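INTERNAL AUDIT FORM
Audit reference: QA-55
Scope: verify that the stored structure record matches its stored sequence.
Auditor: D.O.
Record contents follow.
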Amino acid sequence: MTEHEACKILGVSPEAGQDVIKKRYRELMRRVHPDAGGRQEEEKRQGCRHLQAQEINRAYSFLKGRAPQAGGMAGRRGDGRGKGKTGGRNESPSWDAPVNVHAYREREVLQYAEGHGGEVLGSFCISKGRYLWTVEEDFPLFLLGMYRCSKQILDEEDAVRPRDAARAVSGVWKTDFSRDPASSRPERSAGLRSRVQAELAYLLAQQFIDGTVLLGKLVKERTEDAAGMEIYFIPAMLERSGGPAAKNGEVLYPSRLQKHRLYLKNREGRELGYLSFADDRLYYVVIPMLEQRSAQVKIRAAEKPEGKKYQNLELWLRLPGKQNGGMPENLNLQIEKLLADYREQSGICK
């Protein structure tokens, strides 16, 4: 996309400032929102070309990326276009991000729809593919996309469930099925699906998050040790389990990794709680690295807690050797095993 094409799509001049571009972008996005069907029909009757959400978004991203106040976005987008290379990106992407061609399933890239005053009206899909998450994409919307993707996968699994296959597995049925056949599924089956979906969404998210790349964007304090290994300093928190607080400056040690939580203990071996972050994005970067044993940590209590639930921590994360990036190859196998276990426990036959 050229600057001329982007300006033409948004209907602004090349000299337009960021305030004008953003105002025009919001106006166009309101027009293409699913709830604005009447306005779209009126434009068609007047002979106006109907714009698609993804081309509006691409045009806005281009014009926003050229501006100095866009920061890192300008460099990221400019590198690929200026050299005429894709750099591992999709050849003709509708969303400008790297891809993981080995991801288990495509995901939706979601966009907020905003009102005249900037208030959020909702969200809708602007693109679909195996795109990695980048800091330019809203993270809560990324997690919402993972939830939708996991739900779709389990809906497909449930669609092939025999009508009474779960009877032998669960052994507990409601007594009145006459009004709603769907209500005949046992309550424990709903609990199973909820647990599986949470795990599935987490595994899917790992396939679209390249931690070694994102650390450099999310964490500003970085050094190297004598061996040249990268060390990141990350403010963190201890979510306490109700026991005594760690002493100021006390070193804490990993106790166990369970359900994607790293539990910490003191020198005496007493478990104090689990590792947490104020920035949710770091949870999806740091914890997978520890699960995959691709990083080492040193953790120290920063101060006495003001309340009963949290205590501030200082965390140093070291990445041994050169990191090539990318996602672990066994994620697809983990997903397949999770789904196979779900079929077995819920009585789905394939």
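Auditor finding: record pair retrieved intact. The beta strands are 107-114, 120-129, 222-224, 230-240, 251-258, 261-265, 271-276, 296-301, 310-319.
Action required: none
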